[in-house]
UniProtKB/TrEMBL annotation:
Coiled coil (residue ranges): none
Keyword Ribonucleoprotein: no
The name this protein goes by in its record: Misacylated tRNA(Ala) deacylase
Keywords in alphabetical order: Metal-binding, Zinc
GO BP term, example: alanyl-tRNA aminoacylation
InterPro entries in the record: Ala-tRNA-synth_IIc_core, Alanyl-tRNA_Editing_Enzymes, Thr/Ala-tRNA-synth_IIc_edit, Transl_B-barrel_sf, tRNA_SAD
Localisation per UniProt entry: Cytoplasm
Length: 245
């Protein structure tokens, strides 16, 4: 059953009410709507818990998509109680974790602005993220850090703009990822825009992001690794650079 993915329109929504619509053999739970982000595009799915009418909690270990993007499955930790079909639950996203992932994912977008090369891979983490670029050039990590922090400190707005699948197909150049295709098939595609009138950047992405670059906070490039003749891996971490980096 298609779910109303509330996070697509409000990244800051961390709690909501929902009704159980399906329970899988492995314990996975489907709802009529959810504020839990499902693993996709290099960003991990949300964790947190469901609150039942009696105040008890069902702790969740992961959120993932089903066979199609319209299906989102919430997977409880082992040994947790199971709800019943039609039960109303209050959803609680682990907000501190989600917010760190939002900040990190936005930082990855800023890196793609500073390094305008095709992206060959990416993984968003709570404390470290990586972005791989199809590039052979040598680049100084401190220079990249300084340019990223300039974008952070300029406090550009970050917002979504929706386009149709057809508009995306007609403008393939806006896709920066070389290997991962944008989330299509839902009839519309979200463009993550940075800067007034998208002056800094605009690219298709289904992840969650902060609303202004200042929220990213202090970040730095901890390491640039050579992964083949024309592939470079950039590792982003929170905080200022240290001697250990």
């Amino acid at each position: 059953m298609a779910v109303n993915a509330l996070y697509r329109d409000d990244f800051y929504l961390s709690t909501a009410e929902a009704v159980v619509t399906a329970i899988h053999e492995d314990g996975g739970i489907e709802l009529d709507q959810t504020c839990f982000y499902a693993t996709s595009g290099g960003q991990p799915g949300d964790t947190g818990f469901f609150e039942r009418a009696d105040g008890s909690k069902i702790m969740l270990g992961q959120t993932r998509h089903g066979p199609i993007k319209d299906i989102i499955i919430h997977v409880p930790l082992e040994g947790e109680a199971q709800p019943i079909l039609g039960e109303k639950l209050v959803l609680h996203v682990d907000w501190p974790r989600r917010y760190k992932l939002m900040r990190m994912h936005t930082a990855c977008h800023l890196l793609s602005v500073v390094c305008p090369y095709p992206i060959t891979g990416a993984a968003v983490g709570e404390d470290e993220s990586r972005v791989d670029f199809d590039m052979s050039e040598t680049i100084d990590k401190d220079e990249v850090t300084a340019r990223m922090m300039a974008l952070v400190n300029e406090n550009h707005p970050v917002f979504l703009r929706w386009i149709t699948d057809e508009e995306l197909a007609a403008n393939p150049g806006i896709v920066k990822s070389k290997n991962v295709r944008p989330p299509i098939g839902l009839g519309r595609v979200s463009l993550v825009c940075i800067g007034d009138d998208s002056a800094v950047d605009s690219q298709p992405c289904g992840g969650t992001h902060v609303s202004e670059t200042q929220e990213v906070g202090a970040i730095h490039i901890a390491k640039i690794e050579k992964k083949g003749k024309e592939n470079r891996r950039f590792r982003i971490r929170f905080g200022a650079p240290t001697d250990e980096n």
